[in-house]
Amino acid sequence: TTVVKNTSTVIEAHQVCTGPDARTADMHFEAVSPTTVTGTFKSIATHEGKTMNVDGTIAARWVSGDCGNVK
Question: What is the C-alpha separation between 25 and 44, in angstroms, rounded?
Fold first, then answer.
């Protein structure tokens, strides 16, 4: 994995795995505010001659510092 960019609000990385289960992946995550993170990722994997493409996005936000009764 190679970190392409790493700042106080952004991290980007690129990953290459070789061999029989080859894969590449790119990801970008950004803290757009102190309580909100967004991100994207893309992965291409090959196994036994078959290729799988995965694209995704996330949106996350801080909910609470108290989990209530959850331990």
Answer: 6
Q: Which of 21, 16, 24 is nearest to 48 (CA)?
A: 21
Which residue do the tokens 């995965």 mark?
A: 54
Residue 33 has pLDDT above 80, yes or no: yes
Residue 63 CB partners (closer than 8 Å, separation 6+): none
**CA-based nearest residue to 25, from 10, 7, 46, 48:** 46
| Residue 6 tokens, joined | 């790493």
Give the span between the Cα atoms of 53 and 42, in whole angstroms.
7
Instruction: List the one residue out of 56, 53, 34 whose CA is nearest residue 44.
Output: 53
pTM of the model: 0.80
